[in-house]
Sequence to fold (140 residues):
Amino acid sequence: MLDQGSSAGAGDEPGTGVRTTANVEPRSPPLDRLFHALADPTRMRMVERLCRSPASVSQLAQPLTMSLSAVMQHLEVLEASGLVRSEKVGRVRTYHIETTGLRTVERWITERRTGWERRFDRLGAFLAEDPETPPSGGNT
Fold:
């Protein structure tokens, strides 16, 4: 669970804008870690880039205006959340998207959307049956 009681900026790495994984409890449900990881615009860009193809750390860092150390911290958060995985061959560490993490987020959103659609369907049916409801498009 995220530390909701802390002030804005608490847990940020000085000068990097990177929130450390200490802000996410180690026993957090995976969904909390996934949304925490996706909440940062830099990490979202990295995930979008990795959805196209695997990339090395230097390839991921190239378009960003931050230190390699800050990029690595972002990648650690993404890897801890289960959104990406890495492999090291020689001196090159390559990151890959982990589709199970994205499927977990998609499933959670779909469940919420399905619930809301059912509620709206029931509301629509109720309003269609209610004799007090004026016909649509008519004058009141």
In short: The domain at 21-98 is CATH 1.10.10.10 (Arc Repressor Mutant, subunit A).
